[in-house]
Amino acid sequence: LRSFQDQTKIGLTLVAASTILILVIWNGFKNYLTKFLVLGLIIADLFIFSSKINVWKNFDELIIHTDPIINKLKTELNDSTGRVYTFSNSWTNLMPDQLLPHHIPEANGFVSLPLKRFQKWQTEAEKEWLRGNSNLFKTGSVKYVYDNNNLSVVDNPLPKVYITNAYIIAKNGSESLDFLTKESMDPKVAVVESDNPNFVTKKNTPEISTAKIEIYKPNYVRITTHALFDGILVVKVPSSSRVR
Q1: Residue 16, phi then psi, degrees to nearest 5
Q2: 53: pLDDT confidence band, cut at 50, 70 and 90?
Q3: Among candidates 160, 187, 157, which has minimal Cα distance to 78?
Q4: Burial environment of residue 198 by CB neighbours within 10 A (0 to 12, 13 to 18, 19 or more)
Q5: Is the overall model pTM greater than 0.85, yes or no?
Q6: Distance CA 214, CA 121 (A)
Q7: Crossing angle of the two packed helices 116-130 and 173-180, in degrees rounded to 10
Q8: What is the pLDDT of residues 144-187, one digit of tens each?
Q9: What are the strands, taking DSSP E only, across 118-207?
């Protein structure tokens, strides 16, 4: 709501002015000067609004960035160290489309039609964060959270890929989210959705074993690990990705 108010108030004012002008001079709309005036106001409105949404920069300006936070993230974040998450109501240089040219791992995803399941994760993760619980961000391999112009650190986020020896079986997505949002839940415990009666919850003392992504392509992922125990392989992917 805040970003909407900040970015669109001028555009909405011009739309209102254009509408009023059309209504006032409707009977004399045959005047070409009036037509051009109304058209000019509408074009100005569209340009002002779109300039806030689209990045009117060339590629070099995006890559050579002076934002100190982006420079910090470029130095510190990679697939092994974690990702950054920007609160959904923020309108900043840390939006996903701004981070992509810098190859900064981010947890928001950048898609025109986000998955409903992922949107639920975002909503709950932000709520839990404001309550002081960072477990959902930890499970999402989020190292930094950006909110209200502040970059906060998430302690001990889980890696992007790992083996865990403890897991809980959930029946559906709702039950899965219920497990994940419990404050007593250890982030190292995987939540697995399955209706297989032979696949049951395994409650060990949670441990994880490291794994390494050797190849990561849209339709192919190769992972190597030297696990010290049997367990579940957990792979974190962007909201727009699917792994078969």
Answers
A1: -60, -45
A2: low
A3: 160
A4: exposed
A5: no
A6: 28
A7: 20
A8: 999 878 899 999 999 989 999 999 999 888 888 888 888 888 99
A9: 142-147, 150-153, 161-164, 167-170, 190-193
Cα distance from N-terminal residue to C-terminal residue, the chain: 37
The number of CA neighbours under 13 Å toward the Cβ of 239 is 20
Amino acid identity at 143: K
Are the C-beta atoms of 199 and 69 separated by less than 8 Å?
A: no
Q: Which helix (H) or strand (E) holds 140?
A: none
* Residues in contact with 86: Cβ distance below 8 Å, sequence separation at least 6, in sequence order: 92, 94, 95, 96, 106, 108, 146, 147
CB atoms within 10 A of CB 179: 14
Q: Directed axis angle between helix 32-53 and helix 2-24, to 10°?
A: 170
Inter-residue contact 85 to 124 (CB < 8 Å): no
For 210, the token pair is 């490291």
Ordered alpha helix ranges (H), 92-203: 96-99, 116-130, 135-139, 173-180
How confident is the model at residue 242, as a pLDDT?
Answer: 40
Alpha helices in the chain (DSSP H): 2-24, 32-53, 59-63, 68-76, 96-99, 116-130, 135-139, 173-180
